[in-house]
Structures are given as structure tokens and as C-alpha cells.
Amino acid sequence: MLFVILAILIFGVLIATHELGHFATAKLLGVKVNEFAVGMGPAIFKWGKGETLYSLRALPIGGFCAMEGEDDDSADPRSFGRAAGWKKLIILCAGAAMNFLTGVIIFLVIYAQFSAFTMPTIGGIMEGYGLEDCGLQAGDQVISVDGHKMYGYSNLSFFLNRAGDTVDWVVERDGERVVLNDVYMPRQEKTDEEGNTTYLRGLSIGMEVLPGTLANKLSFGWYAALDNVRLVWISLGDLVSGAVGLRDLSGPVGIVDVMTEVGSNPEYSPTLAAAAINMANFAGLIAVNLAVMNLLPLPALDGGRVFFLLLNGILNALFKRKIDAKYEGYVHLAGLAMLMGLMLVVTFSDIGKLLGK
């Protein structure tokens, strides 16, 4: 139960952090904020300071930043709707930026504990796979696979599993960069004595150990955030292409369940310190996920608002006209309804998976 509560709080804090980004930039740029709330549901405490009402609400699942004229046409000269376009753009993107910054900070804290880091190398060429003349050599430091930069040791196996029969390699050998394009290395099925099937490409993966210097800690913390951004985009691509389905999606219920499992299961977290690192790593992933998802150009999301902002800028420059705020509001309302419907479907799916355990 402790990990369930902790997971819910982490999820709520990350959403509240997103709203804090909107709030801080709105205040900084002179846009009127009517209310800033931490949590959702009925208010437990309320207090006013200046023109803004601050509230602490009962449900620790996020928060909101209510700006004047955000969803309607306000005559207030300091309303969001009457702010300059560049101010609106900064305010709209600030929530995602705050989430990404939070993710970077979390990963930096995690990697500050590490005394060494690992990167993938070519361990060797296996016999019988026809790769003897492929150009790769044992000891090559892998820079990228099919254009995907290596940010950590696990990246190589991940992208090799996703690659086709030909793979583009960039490696470093004796201090020089070597480019090997269209290396033919199809996956070959192997079954061991216990009946387990694996797919090999004739390579063994080696490991380069890097010292835990301050520079490496900062670099790998930053790389971890970038790697998770890439993972989110890959997952979205898999969803659009049909490689994964709605059943594979997880909402708040599923996320909290996974975080609880990771933190409380001795198999994943044998010690309290390991549990803390695993929970923090998951929190960093969620923070980056929220940053990417909120900038998608979908109605009701920040990215959708940015899309309309840019579209109105183009229409105004070309035709001296803008989309009526009323109609834009209808689009965002419809988008919100669809997102809520999707969230409901995913939540029921999460509950079904929990009951099926």
C-alpha cells in the first residue's frame, strides 16, 4: 500500500509540475492567473495573494492553472487571449518544458549515485552466420545503429531487435569513425536444449566501462532523458503503425500498478535503495512522457493549442483573418471529449488486466 500511495503522489506531482510551468511563465510575462491549484477535486485550503487564488485540493492527481481569457474572449488587457503570440507560445510550451526539465533532474540525481557506466561494443563475430567479411571487428565501439545513437549499453540489443535484415553501422575503431552501410545480417532462429527460442545475428555484444566522473554523470543523465524521449516517439510510431494495440496502452491505473510492482517486488528491488532508484527512474520516464505527449498537435493538448496559434499566425499574415476563438474552443472541447473517452477505455483495460492477474 505504501508503494501505491507513493506512485499516486509521484504521478500527481509530475502533473502539478506541468501546470507550474504554465503558471510561472504566465506570471513572468504579465498574463493574469485567476487560480493555481495543486490537486484536483474539492478544495481543502484556499488563500488569495494579489489577483490569484491559490488552492490545495483533496485529490493528489495533478492541478491546474486557470488563466484569464484562456477559454473565452475576455476584455481584460492582461488576459491570455490578448497576449502577444510569442508570449502565448512560451506559456503553452512551458508545461512540457518543465516536465522535461524535471525528468532531466531526476535522471541526474539517479546517475549521481553511479560509480561507472557502460556502453556497447562488438564483442565478437560468431561462426556460421556469414559475417566474417561484414566489416565489423571485435572491440569496435558502437556509435549508432540504423541512425539511432547509442545512449547506453542496452540500446544496441534494442535497436538490433527492431532492425531489418540489413543494418547501417557507425563504429569507432582505434580513434577513427568507421561507417558500414547495408550490412546483411538476417536474424536466425536458435532453440536451446530447454526449448527457448532466440533470434541471433551472429554478433556477441561487448561492453566498454566508463568511469563515474562528474562529466560522465552529467552526460548519462542527459542521455537518459533523450533516450526516453526517443522511446516515447518509437512507442507512438508502433501505435500508429498497428505494431501495438490499445490493449498495450496504460493509463494512470496501469502506470501506478507498474510502479508499485517495480518498487515492491524483491525480484526487481531487492533493497530499499534499489526500490528508490527504480521508482525514480520510472518517475523520470513519466515526466519525459508527459512532455512529449502534451506537445502532440492534438485538440485539447498544449500541442493542439500551439498548432492553432501558429495556424492563426499564418492566416493573419496571408489573409488578415483568424479562426474564431469560439470555433477553436469547440474543436478543443471535442478533442477533450475524445481524450477522456480514450482514457476511460484505457482505464477499463488496465482494471481488466489487474483483475486477470
Please supply descriptive tags for the structure shown above:
two-stranded antiparallel ribbon; 24% strand; 4-stranded antiparallel β-sheet; globular; single chain; 357 residues; 49% helix
Please provide a written account of the structure.
- 49% of the residues lie in helices and 24% in strands.
- The chain has helices at residues 2-28, 85-111, 155-162, 214-241, 252-264, 272-294, 302-319, 325-355; strands at 33-49, 52-67, 116-125, 141-145, 148-149, 166-173, 176-184, 188-191, 197-200, 203-211.
- The strands form four sheets. Strands 5-4-6-7 form a four-stranded antiparallel sheet, with helices on one face.
- Strand 4 (141-145) and strand 5 (148-149) form a beta hairpin.
- Helix 1 (2-28) packs across helix 6 (272-294).
- The chain is globular and about 75 Å long.
